[in-house]
């Protein structure tokens, strides 16, 4: 497609070692304007390294990064003009206010976005003149997001933007990040929250030990994977392992919390068989839930390992 605009960011065969640690082993992805693309992976997967290479903060051993078609390794200055970033290590002076911080950042650029408009856009107007150290964690994250927009970037890069936020602040930030995408910016973010990746991102790359093991829309990742739905069941009287495992469609029965978690090839068949079995035994259902496959199931299927992060531990 010779006439289509270049992807906001295009990463090709990126490799990065730290001594003997292979942090990136040849990763490829693109993010288009109007798209939220998530790098999802457990701690140490290589997310931050990938983001730092895109931002020109680290030089990869090999590979290419293009931003709006500009070779970011050959022309880092020109590429950086197109990017706004919010990093995990972001910090500001304790007593600086959101207004002062935005004005300060604006002074670095020729055509900055207006401070008033950014305060409004990121719901910071009421806190415009409050000291940084008096802001809540969520307000600080919103300020860092606002600072990423001062140079009117086409690509916005966010490293674990909601780390440590409570559920309300996380939802609020999700709403703002979705608004950024809807305004036509490309958003590249890293996360190790599966629910965040699934609900916020248009596409996800699952990163594991420096490799991308799958890239797709969240729903496609789940539907393409060879993972089974599960039926979680509790019965009034105990249901023995032989009966649970022999129900129609069941390929695996795991005992859990006084009941069974049944992986099945056919949810309807299993539930119908279960009800018949319970009637025949003079038993009855106490609780029943159908669980669709999750991104965690997809990760286990793709890597053969369980998902664990320091935050989850
Ligand atoms: P997290 O979610 O914990 O931030 P991550 O997915 O962002 O992890 P990276 O920080 O990119 O992963 O780390 C990838 C690998 O490279 C890890 O094994 C890490 O220990 C290693 N690593 C990262 N930075 C350095 C460094 N400066 N020196 C040596 N090794 C490093």
Provide structural commentary.
By secondary structure, the chain is α/β, with parallel strands linked by helices. The protein has two domains: 7-217, P-loop containing nucleotide triphosphate hydrolases (Rossmann fold), CATH 3.40.50; 230-292. It is 32% helix and 28% strand. It is built from eleven helices and 14 strands. The chain has helices at 47-54, 76-80, 98-106, 115-121, 137-147, 167-182, 194-200, 218-224, 241-245, 267-281, 295-303, and strands spanning 9-18, 21-31, 36-40, 62-67, 70-71, 83-86, 155-159, 186-191, 203-208, 211-216, 230-235, 250-256, 259-264, 285-291. It has a six-stranded mixed sheet, sandwiched between helices. Strands 2-1-4-5 form a four-stranded antiparallel sheet. A four-stranded antiparallel sheet has the order 12-13-11-14. The longest helix has 16 residues, at 167-182. The protein is elongated. Adenosine-5'-triphosphate (ATP) is lined by residues 18, 21, 23, 41, 43-49, 192.
């Amino acid at each position: 497609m010779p006439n289509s605009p270049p992807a906001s960011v295009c990463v090709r065969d990126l490799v990065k070692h730290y001594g003997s640690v292979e942090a990136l082993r040849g990763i490829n992805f693109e993010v288009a304007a109007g798209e939220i693309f998530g790098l999802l992976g457990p701690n140490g997967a290589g997310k931050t390294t990938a983001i730092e290479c895109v931002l020109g903060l680290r030089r990869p051993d090999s590979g290419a990064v293009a931003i709006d078609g500009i070779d970011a390794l050959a022309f880092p200055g020109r590429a950086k003009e197109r990017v706004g970033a919010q990093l995990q290590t972001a910090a500001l002076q304790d007593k600086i206010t959101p207004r002062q911080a935005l004005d300060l950042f604006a002074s670095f650029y020729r055509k900055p976005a207006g401070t008033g408009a950014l305060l409004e856009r990121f719901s910071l107007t009421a806190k415009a003149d409050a000291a940084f150290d008096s802001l809540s964690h969520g307000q600080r994250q919103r300020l860092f997001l606002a600072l990423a927009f001062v140079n009117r970037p086409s690509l916005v890069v966010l490293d674990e933007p909601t780390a440590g936020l409570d559920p309300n602040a996380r939802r609020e930030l999700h709403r703002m990040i979705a608004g950024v995408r809807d305004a036509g910016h490309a958003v590249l973010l890293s996360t190790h929250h599966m629910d965040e990746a699934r609900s916020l991102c248009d596409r996800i790359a699952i990163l594991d030990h420096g490799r991308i093991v799958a890239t797709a829309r969240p729903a496609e990742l789940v539907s393409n994977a060879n993972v089974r739905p599960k039926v979680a069941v509790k019965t009034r009287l105990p249901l023995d392992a032989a009966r649970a495992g022999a129900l129609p469609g069941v390929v695996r029965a795991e005992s859990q919390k006084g009941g069974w978690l049944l992986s099945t090839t056919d949810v309807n068949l299993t539930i119908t068989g279960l009800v018949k079995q319970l009637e025949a035994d003079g038993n009855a259902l106490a609780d029943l839930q159908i669980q669709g496959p999750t991104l965690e199931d997809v990760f286990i299927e793709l890597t053969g390992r369980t998902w664990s992060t320091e935050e989850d531990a």
